[in-house]
């Protein structure tokens, strides 16, 4: 294994120091290190963070390899500074058996660009009728600990209760896509002033808030772990705040796009802005940002949702919901939070790694720690060109926007997956 000496790098915003990586771990940390056999990476002006961890990625394999594969999504992740991603279960076939989650896990190992941790479906075929083989997925080589029907809500309260009870035995988590389906029938965008003006059927905030309120009560009753995917409204934040104050075992994520973009984007009728849950209002964004700062929201997760051209470049009503996220998330976080490196490390690496139980990830560089880290140039700016993204899909809402920050290098267990801003393989 090659040794790497990263010189004069700021570790999570601290004064510059050197990092020596050897045999997959951080061997030494301190100023003025020398290692004649090591490849030197000049870290001047760069910030080192523990490798980012995404709790919510759609890799589309098996089934929609035209939109993304485990390999292309892993490369996008590495370029975005990630060393681990949790792959959502809404593939085709659905990841609702030990066989499918093991397939995704194995493809991740073969690509070897990030650690791919499969998420298992809660219900068979995401149909919301019968529990999937949660135990078999947990016992499989993929060692699944998070289960989600993301894309669909586990709407049946009895099934949700059973799922929470089942995973409690192995300290698993049910990650809920909170959307009361009866309240969102036919919905195209956030229900509010803009939807009224455009004449599009609205997706009311209460459809999210009602499910979160129900589920925190169920999680409290069962004493099990609940994670809330892509929180998007100010009201949801208040429900979560109260639940956390009572000690409910609930965690929550917010996406970069829900921290930045409002429902006014729908005025363009450009389906690149169609997403589920939908883009909300400026007041929601303000509440989400405050919750991210004070910890009511634990994590920034991308909800990276690649879609083929024919599923996005069509009429708004026919377009699939979802946006790319892996290659731009850190830049959006930097834009939204500023150079608050400790907070960024907490929300994008340490906490998601802890929630997912990914040992060796989310740990700040220190002697003996696995060398999973990313180097960022915070002073750089880049203009997002969809054609240059590593994802197989092009549905980024940030096309031609100039964003702060550039990922210079990413290391997975001591081996670079990205160097000089380029994928190594
Ligand atoms: O916008 C979304 N896209 N929201 C989801 O919950 C699912 C995702 C997808 O799979 O495309």
From TrEMBL:
Binding positions for Zn(2+) 2 per the UniProt entry: 150, 177, 230
Sorted UniProt keywords: Hydrolase, Metal-binding, Pyrimidine biosynthesis, Zinc
Active site: 303
Gene responsible for this protein: pyrC
Residues that bind substrate: 58-60, 90, 276, 307, 321-322
Record protein name field: Dihydroorotase
GO terms, molecular function: allantoinase activity; dihydroorotase activity; zinc ion binding
The family this protein is said to belong to: Belongs to the metallo-dependent hydrolases superfamily. DHOase family. Class I DHOase subfamily.
Enzyme Commission no: 3.5.2.3
Substrates-to-products reaction catalysed: (S)-dihydroorotate + H2O = N-carbamoyl-L-aspartate + H(+)
